[in-house]
Amino acid sequence: MCQNPQRSACSLMTPGLPPLFHQLANSTLLHTRAVGAVDVSLGISELLPAVAILPFMLYQLAGFGTLRYVVSNKVNWVLNLSILALIIASYAANHANDFRAERAFAGALVLIMAATVTYGILKLRTMQSEFDTRCPVQKEMDKEKKDKKKAKEHHEEEA
Fold it and tell me: What is this structure's pTM?
C-alpha cells in the first residue's frame, strides 16, 4: 500500500475504504480500543468492496440483471458504468480526504440508484398489468375448459 501521506497518484490506483467499511473495521462501538492503538491501513482488505462490486457489474453488463427487462441495452450500460464510475470516484475522494467531493459523488450515486429503482418498479408493474390483460389467469382458463366440456357433454346427451 501507499506510504506517502500526500496520497498522490498511488491513491488513485488503490481504492479507498468507504466510510462505513472503515468505521466497522476501527469501531469503538463494537469493541474497546486497546491502549496506544491507532488507525492503520487495512492493507489488501481495502479491496474487499471492489471484490463485491466487480462480479455484480459483470453480471449486470452481461445482461443477466433485471434492469435489462426495463431499459434498452445502451441505457443499461450507461447506468451501470456511471454507477461504477461514481463508486470509484467516491472511493478515490475518500482516500484523498476530499470529503465534499465524496459526499457529492455518493449523493449523485444515491439519486441515480433511487431513480433507477423507482423507474424499474413502475415499469415492471406496467409490464405485469399488460401481461395480465393479454394472458388470462389459469383459473379463468380452467373455468372456460370446464364450461366447454359441459357444453360438449350436454350437446352429446341431446343427440
Answer: 0.59
